[in-house]
# Entry
Amino acid sequence: MKYEAVIFDLDGVIVSTDEYHYQAWQKTADGEGIYFDRKINDRLRGVSRMESLEIILERAEKSYTEDEKVSMATAKNDLYRELLNNITPADILPGVEEALGKLKAMGIKVAIGSSSRNTPLILKRIGMDKSFDAIADGNDIKNSKPDPEVFLLAAKRLGIAPEKCLVVEDAHAGIDAALAGKMGAFAVGAAIDHPGAQAAAEDMTKVDIEEMVGC
Ligand code: B16
Ligand code: MG
# Structure
């Protein structure tokens, strides 16, 4: 097999919390009278909270102090966490559990590599906090995607060389991060048009797992 491990992004791959990020940012931007839409939101995929805010503030008419930025990001996160109360195991995206089952049966290690600092809460809410061999998330890293730090840490925690890891991502920044880490990159959803990914699928139900890991 070409790959010995698969590192999954969380938001947009395992569960659709990306919609809740959008709603929370939209409300935060509206409160400040800053233009925001789904196209701008797509640029926030895989990007850290504070970097996301900087992208949103590109459309602001005034400048904000560091303290104001921190309180806006905190307000967004409070709204987001409120929305996360709605998620249950029923929100695990189609095809994900089947994929994990097949990978484990094939002896392939599985990990999470997410920029989100809410990863532990999300995994707990969907009942997947014990489903992975390793987890690396926004709490563990200094540089978020497109920097490869979170994926390299996941690989290290798995004890597998980066070249033997395949990353599954829905963000352009995440595919860039995987490639920067010398890992394989499999694009799903919003990342499907990334030219650097080795393969792509609309969602996990459309993936041939054996083909994906290079059997
Ligand atoms: P938080 P992923 C990323 O998660 C999201 O795609 C991105 O939109 C978000 O800004 C980032 O997590 C930080 O999230 O505010 O919860 O720390 O796609 O890398 O799993
Ligand atoms: Mg994502």
User: Anything to note?
Assistant: The beta strands are 5-8, 109-113, 134-136, 165-169, 184-188, 199-201.
